[in-house]
Design brief:
This protein has 253 residues and is mainly β. Helix content is 0%, strand content 33%. The strands form 2 sheets. It has a 25-stranded parallel β-sheet, with no helix packed on it. A two-stranded parallel ribbon has the order 20-22.
Length: 253
C-alpha cells in the first residue's frame, strides 16, 4: 500500500512514483528517496544507477554529483572507487586523474602522487618516467627536476640532469657531479666536457684535473697535449710553467 498520488507501484510515498518502496516524486526504481530516481536504493535526485547518494549519478554506489562509475565520492567521476572530481580512472584521489591509484591532479599514469604525471610510481609534478621524485623527469629513478627540453635520465638527483647516476645541475653525462658537465662520464666540477674522468673547471679531454686543460691526463691550469703538470704547458710529459717541447721541467722550455 502506498501513500500519495499517481503512484503506480507498491509501497510508495509521494507523487508519480512507478516503482516500489520509493519516497518522493517521480521515482521509477525501487527503494529510492528523492526526485526522478530511476535506479534502485538511491537517495537524492535524478540518479539512474543503484545505491547512489546525490544528484544525477548513473553508476553504482556513488556519493556526489554526476558520477558514472562505481563506488566513487565526488563530482563527475567515471571510474571506480575514486574520491574527488573528474577522475576517469580507478582508485584515484584528487582531480582529473585518468590513471590508476593516483593521488593528486591530472595524473594519466598509475600509482602517482602529485600532478600531471604520465608515468608510474612518481612523486612530484609532470613526470613521464617511472619511479621519479621531483618534476619533469622522463627517465627512471630520478630525484630532482629535469629539463623541459631534455628531461631524460636515470638515477639522477639535482636539476636538469640528463645522464645516469648523476647529481648536480644540468649535467648530461653519467656518474657526474657538479654544474653543466657534458662529458661522457665521471665528471666533477664545472663546465667539463670530453670523454670523461675530469675534475675541475672548463676541462676538455680525458683524465684531467684542474682548470682549462684540453689534453689527456694533465694536471694543473691550461695544459694541452698529454701527461703535463703545471701551468700552460703545450708539449708532452712536461712539468712546470709554459713549456712547449716534450719532457721538460722548469719554465719556458
Amino acid at each position: 500500500m502506498g501513500f500519495g498520488a499517481l503512484n503506480s507501484g507498491s509501497g510508495n510515498i509521494g507523487f508519480g512514483n512507478s516503482g516500489s518502496g520509493n519516497v518522493g516524486f517521480f521515482n521509477s526504481g525501487t527503494g529510492n528517496v528523492g526526485l526522478f530516481n530511476s535506479g534502485g536504493h538511491s537517495f537524492g535526485a535524478e540518479n539512474s544507477g543503484s545505491f547512489n547518494t546525490g544528484l544525477t549519478n548513473s553508476g553504482q554506489g556513488n556519493t556526489g554529483f554526476v558520477n558514472a562509475g562505481f563506488n566513487s565520492l565526488g563530482l563527475a567521476n567515471a571510474g571506480a572507487n575514486n574520491m574527488g572530481v573528474f577522475n576517469g580512472g580507478s582508485q584515484n584521489f584528487g582531480f582529473g586523474n585518468s590513471g590508476f591509484q593516483n593521488t593528486g591532479s591530472w595524473n594519466a599514469g598509475s600509482i602517482n602522487t602529485g600532478d600531471f604525471n604520465a608515468g608510474s610510481i612518481n612523486t612530484g609534478w609532470a613526470n613521464s618516467g617511472a619511479s621519479n621524485t621531483g618534476g619533469f623527469d622522463s627517465g627512471s629513478l630520478n630525484t630532482g627536476f629535469g629539463s623541459m627540453l631534455t628531461p631524460v635520465g636515470a638515477k639522477n638527483s639535482g636539476f636538469g640532469t640528463t645522464g645516469l647516476d648523476s647529481s648536480g645541475f644540468f649535467n648530461s653525462g653519467g656518474d657526474t657531479s657538479g654544474f653543466q658537465n657534458t662529458g661522457l662520464a665521471f665528471e666533477s666540477g664545472f663546465h667539463n666536457s670530453g670523454n670523461g674522468n675530469n675534475a675541475g673547471i672548463n676541462n676538455t679531454g680525458s683524465f684531467l684535473a684542474g682548470i682549462g686543460n684540453t689534453g689527456f691526463d694533465n694536471i694543473g691550469i691550461a695544459n694541452s697535449n698529454v701527461f703535463n703538470s703545471g701551468i700552460g704547458n703545450s708539449g708532452n710529459d712536461d712539468s712546470g710553467f709554459f713549456n712547449k717541447t716534450d719532457a721538460q721541467s722548469g719554465f719556458f722550455n
